[in-house]
Design brief:
The chain has one domain: Rossmann fold (3-Layer(aba) Sandwich). About 35% of the residues lie in helices and about 15% in strands. It contains 7 helices and 6 strands. It has a 6-stranded mixed beta sheet with strand order 3-2-4-1-5-6, with helices on both faces. α5 crosses α6.
């Protein structure tokens, strides 16, 4: 398994107010654009081999500055998309909070299917399949950046930590935060969740220098 850097998109005017879902035309606001530039300026110092992204505007715009810094293309992956919220897309959080299903979303998401959309278990399987398919293309020592969405990253983390879906709402994933999934020997580790990038974190992600082979006598 390659080391996967999961990065949530930057801020937009819908964050915390409306459920954007998969609606097109939702772009980063000024703060979100600055967040994307900041995370790119930090991650450019890592030997990132490839950049993948959900195809939505806000994730592609967040990935673009890093791609430019590293001179890499942004490859899109439909499996990294936001949850399909179906009929809930575009509605305000305040409005949805008054529905009976809101309690299911918050306290029993394992049983939740969004009207006209997908269930959390279906979304989690889709996301796992997408990350595993990306993994198969790279070596264990490779660093791969994947830009996605809050619930999507939380569901992935829950899977790799062997958490039940009913507990995934306890996780927090802030805009342009970094979450890392990596394999050490035979075990999968999630050493960083929802991190603001610092030098210590960057140093821990750099691959060790190659060992010198002993000279033949």
């Amino acid at each position: 398994m390659a080391t996967i850097l999961l990065i949530r998109h930057g801020e937009n005017d819908w964050v915390g107010k409306k459920l954007a879902g998969r609606l097109p035309g939702i772009h980063l606001n000024q703060r979100g654009l600055q967040q994307a530039e900041t995370i790119a300026g930090i991650l450019k110092n890592l030997p990132i081999k490839a950049i993948w992204s959900s195809p939505l505007d806000r994730t592609m715009e967040t990935a673009a500055p890093l791609a430019q810094q590293l001179q890499l293309s942004v490859q899109t992956n439909l499996e990294l998309l936001e949850i399909d919220f179906g009929d809930w897309q575009g509605k305000s959080i305040k409005q949805l909070g008054r529905t009976k299903l809101w309690k299911t979303v918050q306290h029993n998401p394992q049983e939740m299917r969004f009207p006209g959309g997908e269930s959390f278990p279906e979304a989690q399987k889709r996301l796992i399949d997408g990350v595993e398919a990306i993994n198969q293309q790279y070596e264990q020592q490779d660093l791969i950046a994947c830009f996605s969405h809050s619930d999507s990253i939380r569901l992935l983390v829950a899977h790799y930590l062997n958490m039940p879906i009913n507990a995934f709402q306890r996780l927090a994933i802030n805009p342009t935060s970094l979450t890392v999934i990596m394999r050490q020997e035979e075990n999968i580790h999630v050493p960083f969740i929802n991190q603001i990038v610092c030098q210590q974190l960057l140093d821990s992600l750099k691959p060790p220098p190659p060992k010198n082979k002993p000279q033949k006598k």
